[in-house]
Amino acid sequence: MGHLVRLNQGETEGVVRDYLQREGLALQGVWLDRGRALGPEVGSVGLPTTIFYDAQGRRVDAR
After folding, report:
1. Would you say residue 1 has pLDDT above 80?
2. pTM (2 decimals)?
3. Which of the chain's termini has less CB crowding within 10 Å, N or C?
4. In whole angstroms, what separates CA 23 from the centre of its chain?
5. Distance CA 42, CA 37 (A)
6. Average pLDDT rounded to a whole number, residues 15-32
7. What per-residue confidence (pLDDT) applies to 31?
8. Which pLDDT band holds residue 43 (cuts at 50, 70, 90)?
C-alpha cells in the first residue's frame, strides 16, 4: 500500500490548519511549500496536481 502526502503551496500553516480543521481532516501527512517551489521543480503547470512515485522514488505519472 502506498502513502499519500498532501502538499499545500503558498499558504501559511495557520490557514492550512484552519481549513483542515473545518473539513475534519488531519494535519498529519500535509507538507507546506510556502515558496511554491515544488510545482516548477516537478513540471506542474496547474493546481491541483497529483504526482505518482514508485517504491524507488521515481516519478511514474502526473495528472
Report:
1. no
2. 0.71
3. N
4. 16
5. 9
6. 93
7. 94
8. confident
Residue type, 2: G
Give one word for 51, left, alpha or beta, with left for phi > 0 and alpha for psi -120 to 50: beta
Mean pLDDT for 6-33 is 93
HEC-encoded secondary structure of the chain: CCCCCEEEECCCHHHHHHHHHHHCCCCCCEEEECCCCHHHHHCCCCCCCCEEECCCCCEEEEC
For β-strands 59-62 and 30-33, DSSP reports them as: unpaired
Residue that has been written with the C-alpha cell 502526473 in this structure: 62
User: Which residues, in sequence order, are CB contacts of 8 under 8 Å at separation 6+?
Assistant: 16, 30, 31, 32, 33
pLDDT at residue 29 tops 70: yes
Chain centroid to CA 12: 14
Q: Find, among 1, 20, 23, the residue nearest to 11 by Cα.
A: 20
